[in-house]
Amino acid sequence: MLPTAMLAGVCVAELISPEPLDIGFLLGAIPPLAVLAHGPVATAVLGGLSVVVLTVPLFRLNDPGSTDVLTVCFVALLSVLLSFVRSTRDAQLVTERAVAEVAQRAVVPPLPERVGPVRCAGLYRAAQSGTLVGGDFFDVRAGPYGVRAVMGDVQGHGLSAVDTVASLLGAFREAVLDEPDPEGVAARLDRRLAVDSAGEPHAELFATAVLMDFSADGGVVRIVACGQSGPLLLRDGQILELDVEPGTPLGLGLAEVTPPKVVSVRLRSGDRLFLASDGVTEARDADGAFYPLLERLPGLADADPGALAERVWSDLVRHCPDVRDDVTMLVLAPGRQGGN
């Protein structure tokens, strides 16, 4: 609105002033300002109005000479050209961003509200501005052996890690259909990273992840941790840290030699499993204090599992406004199909 407001301001000032004002130079700034927000047609209209206001005797703009009029005309024509170039570039950027968003959502699609007997809610905030995918990943899939969930963190973050994330998620989705046990799924992911790393000299790809395997009724979950701690269990308003041994990270080729330990946990009605990446647990405030997840989590939980991740994110940003790492959270609430 600034170019229009400036044009109107010049006209009103000249009309109400008892003496002529030497403010015609302001009209020369209107077409360049129009370029910032308007297309070629609107820029041309504003430029033409500027020339009209400059030359109409009613506004008494000090009887500008031909040089002043020609200067404003030249600036207006140049502004129309620049507006055309900017509009074309903006349209191209919009198209490219739309394609990028579709591609990124194909890698990490939004979680459904329920997969089998498990209610799901996830939150992802990539560290690199303008991207939807970074170095963290999660997915929940149903297969012939039950519902499987994974959440992990690959080496690095931002767009440089998207290729590894896509490779791991592809391997996970295939393993859900083929592997009867969660340790078999972990072995497939480990092999995938090891093979990808072997194809590139000096590449040392690795990732940490937690795999969960739910029984048909959601009453039991088997957990495998590969290089990171297991999920937190929210039960009756309390936080329980499950005794899950972090195994070796994925990508070292050790999953088949030293299979990860599987921990089975029996779940009750109303239980929720909460997983968070190190972007949450290692976030620090201005004084260097870590975000107290275990202390804050009970007060943020409510009856809706889907709201928990958003509540934690809002609380995390208040604690640490400048979050520089990928932030991922996954909330799983097992229960029967007809229940909560």
What is the structure about, briefly put?
Residues 118-334 form the PPM-type phosphatase domain. The chain has 340 residues and is α+β, with helices and mostly antiparallel strands.
Feature tags:
9 helices, six-stranded antiparallel β-sheet, alpha+beta, about 350 residues
Can you walk me through this structure?
The protein is of the alpha+beta class and 340 residues long. The chain has two domains: 2-102, no CATH class; 110-334, Phosphatase 2c, domain 1, CATH 3.60.40. It has nine helices and eleven strands. It has helices at 2-16, 30-35, 40-55, 66-107, 162-178, 182-198, 278-281, 293-300, 305-319; strands at 114-115, 118-125, 136-143, 146-154, 207-214, 220-226, 232-235, 238-241, 262-266, 272-276, 327-334. The strands form two sheets. A six-stranded antiparallel sheet has the order 1-2-11-10-7-8. It has a five-stranded antiparallel sheet with strand order 3-4-5-6-9, covered by helices on one side. Strand 3 and strand 4 form a beta hairpin. Helix 3 runs antiparallel to helix 4. The chain is elongated and about 90 Å long.
Total of DSSP H or I helical runs spanning 4+ residues: 9
Provide the CATH top-level class of the largest domain.
Alpha Beta
**What count of domains describes the coordinates?**
2
Q: At the third CATH level, what is the topology name of the largest domain?
A: Phosphatase 2c, domain 1
- The CATH level-2 architecture of the largest domain is identified as 4-Layer Sandwich
Low-confidence regions: none
Biggest β-sheet: strands ordered side by side in the sheet: 1-2-11-10-7-8
Q: Major β-sheet, in short?
A: 6 strands, antiparallel
Portion of residues in beta strands equals 15-25%
Molecular shape = elongated
Helix percentage: 40-55%
- Beta strand count: 11
